[in-house]
Specification:
The chain is mainly α. The chain is 75% helix and 1% strand. Strand 1 and strand 2 form a beta hairpin.
């Protein structure tokens, strides 16, 4: 009984803040509503249009997959690399961790404005200036206006933003790997790569699974930085499912169809979690 008393407040808060909006979106997805007039029940029409009639949606879905891949490579790949390097440091470790964590606590708007300056063509931004400095001036371009680079350009800030968070999580996991096992492997002739792949990574696999789920679901719900940097442009080159949903709801005032897209995002996250669990747990066997 005492346990239930402590669990009830957070469960009620979670239900009101998370579960209730999901249920409301699910119900609203079966209606056509502009936010003012009476709601009209349309059944599965919103979902039918989502899957078969809205070509923009599938463009945004493809963009979202590219966005997720770039974020995962930067956040998980970069986080694991930095965490491994941190473990080998003997001095200045805490300073490095703080520096990597700083982007996670900076406001989203500040990060968006920062990367607008980094990608700027006129005046010349940091990225184009660096390309000039190393003799690659021919690669200069308006990164946020070029359809071939804009998706990567809006994904990179999101990946950079949370590298520090996953670095600290993975670093804490790496610290739990017994050094005695690693020393024994070195004595047996194992090199650094073998120690990492056969000792360290298998040991931290549960934490890697959790961080992969966190990073994937967050990227699938990514919205703020791409919206602030390009608003989905040029054209639909950087439009994501989330930004398309936002515009459908608050620009086109089609709340029923926007709710159907929000339900799709929830299902998308659940499917992604299921696939991650299936793949990573199967490899662990």
């Amino acid at each position: 009984m005492s346990v239930a008393v402590f669990l009830l407040p957070p469960l009620l808060l979670y239900g009101a803040a998370v579960l209730l909006p999901i249920v409301q979106s699910l119900v609203l997805s079966f209606f056509s509503w502009d936010g003012i007039t009476d709601m009209e029940f349309v059944g599965l029409s919103n979902y039918r249009y989502l899957l078969t009639g809205d070509s923009t949606f599938w463009t945004t879905f493809t963009n979202q997959l590219g966005y997720v891949v770039i974020c995962l490579v930067l956040q998980l790949g970069g986080g694991l690399l930095v965490a491994s390097l941190l473990r080998s440091l003997t001095r200045g470790r805490e300073v490095v961790k703080v520096l990597y964590l700083l982007p996670a606590v900076i406001s989203t708007i500040a990060i968006a404005f920062l990367f607008q300056r980094v990608y700027s063509m006129e005046p010349v931004g940091l990225l184009n200036e660096l390309l000039r400095a190393v003799g690659l001036g021919g690669l200069e371009r308006p990164w946020l206006s070029d359809t071939s680079t804009v998706l990567a350009a809006v994904s990179a800030p999101e990946g950079w933003r949370f590298i520090g968070l996953y670095t600290v999580i993975l670093y804490a996991a790496l610290l739990t790997v017994p050094r005695e096992i690693e020393e024994a492997a070195r004595l047996d002739g194992a090199n650094a790569w073998q120690i990492f792949t056969r000792i360290r990574f298998p040991y931290i696999r549960p934490v890697w699974l959790t961080t992969t789920i966190m990073a994937t679901t967050y990227a699938l719900r990514g919205f703020d930085i791409p919206y602030l940097l390009t608003n989905g442009g040029p054209g639909q080159s950087s439009e994501l499912v989330t930004t398309h949903m936002y515009k459908t709801a608050f620009t086109s005032t089609d709340f029923g169809y926007a709710s159907a897209m929000s339900v799709f995002i929830v299902v998308e996250c659940l499917v992604a979690v299921g696939l991650i669990l299936l793949v990573l747990r199967r490899k662990a066997v």
